[in-house]
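Task: sequence design from structure.
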């Protein structure tokens, strides 16, 4: 059992953090399922870009747009 603070925060118990390998700064998704709150760890993909030359501003903006569209 955990207590909600006045800032609506809670502490994930150490045993659960260790089992799920949750570290400071990790992202968790929050979902509602009926009367349950579900926290899931989020795995972020770090794209690898192979460069065959210099990047233009249009190339960079395209990569940013692709990344933003994945989160929609």
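Answer:
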């Amino acid at each position: 059992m955990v207590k909600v603070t006045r800032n609506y925060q809670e502490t994930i118990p150490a045993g659960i953090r260790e089992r799920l390998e949750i570290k400071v700064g990790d992202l968790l998704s929050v979902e509602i399922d009926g009367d349950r709150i579900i926290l899931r760890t989020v795995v972020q993909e770090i794209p690898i870009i192979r460069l065959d030359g210099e990047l233009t501003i249009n190339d960079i903006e395209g990569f940013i747009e692709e990344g933003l569209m994945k989160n929609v």
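The first strand starts at residue 28 and ends at 33.
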